[in-house]
Amino acid sequence: MNEAGLFGQLLRAARKSRKMSLADLAEKVDKSAKYLGRLERGESQASFELIIALADAMSVSPSAFFDFDSVQADQKFVKDQLRQLLQQQDGRQLLRAYRVLKLMLGP
Predict the structure, then answer these.
(1) Res. 96 pLDDT band, cuts 50 70 90
(2) Same domain, 58 and 38
(3) Which of 36, 42, 100, 103 could form a disulfide with 8 if both were Cys (CB 3.0 to 4.6 A apart)?
(4) Are the CB atoms for 45 and 6 separated by under 8 Å?
């Protein structure tokens, strides 16, 4: 995953941990919920000013959005990513993924 995607995952995690909807956060930073959704999916990149506004709106340090090592090592995050990836596959692709994982991980 690229840096924009990792930033988005951290942004989403911060928002959800504060039980905020995209609409709530969007209102606080004067942006659209649609735009913030694109940020969370890694489809857009935030300006420096927006990063500061997002951090202020959620009472976190701006550096919280850049702790990429913690995201990559977070087992729950990895499991969620695998689950999302698998949900998008058809039966043939699922069987192929199962075989590869079984070979890699053992019995």
Answers:
(1) very high
(2) yes
(3) 42
(4) no
